[in-house]
Specification:
By secondary structure, the protein is an alpha/beta fold. It has helices spanning about 10-25, 30-40, 45-55, 70-80, 90-100, 105-115, 130-140, 160-170; strands at about 1-5, 10, 60-65, 85-90, 120-130, 140-150. Strand 1 and strand 2 form a beta hairpin.
Length: about 170
């Protein structure tokens, strides 16, 4: 991992470690100046690193959807675009989730998910017309609905990843 630049020998691994450390500290809430002091860089370097790696600006975004045929493909798009939370399930996963819990456990888990979703600025909902309306009623924030069918939906639906990518890329706060 050594690289010669003119008369200098550069250790790439050390650079990667400093960058990883700086970004991790920033994600923990330290200011750019605090991070710069800890890792031995100028504050402007920290700022430039963040700008260089920025995927999107804005508030926190969540993605929820079921029953989805291509969950992993959509989850990958969400990760690549900096979506903060994803909960995507196929029809089988949805039923497994429901059947594995008692009524009280299921109610508590659903309430925990709703409480968690309320922490996000925007929730993208992939679901039936009824589920999208229900999500809008439960959350006091913007819900962007992608309707995948009329309720009740009993089979997995394919969602075009480009459609999701387009919506996420338009989110700017």
């Amino acid at each position: 991992m050594l690289l010669r630049i003119g008369e200098k020998i550069i250790n790439r691994q050390k650079i990667y470690q400093v960058i990883d450390s700086a970004l991790e500290l920033r994600s923990q809430g330290l200011s750019q100046q605090e991070v710069a002091n800890k890792v031995g860089l100028d504050r402007t370097v920290i700022s430039k690193l963040e700008t260089l790696g920025e995927v999107r600006k804005g508030g926190k975004v969540a993605l929820v959807g079921f029953p989805i045929k291509n969950c992993e493909e959509l989850a990958q798009v969400a990760r690549q675009q900096g979506v903060d939370y994803s909960l995507l399930m196929s029809e089988n996963e949805r039923w497994d989730y429901v059947e594995a819990k008692s009524g009280v456990q299921l109610f508590n888990n659903i309430m925990e998910i709703v409480a968690r979703l309320r922490q996000y600025d925007v929730v993208i909902m992939l679901g039936s017309n009824m589920r999208i309306k229900l999500m809008e009623a439960l959350l006091d924030k913007e819900v962007i609905g992608i309707e995948i069918g009329e309720s009740p939906i009993a089979e997995d639906k394919y969602v075009d990843p480009k459609k999701l990518l387009n919506i996420i890329s338009q989110l700017r706060f």
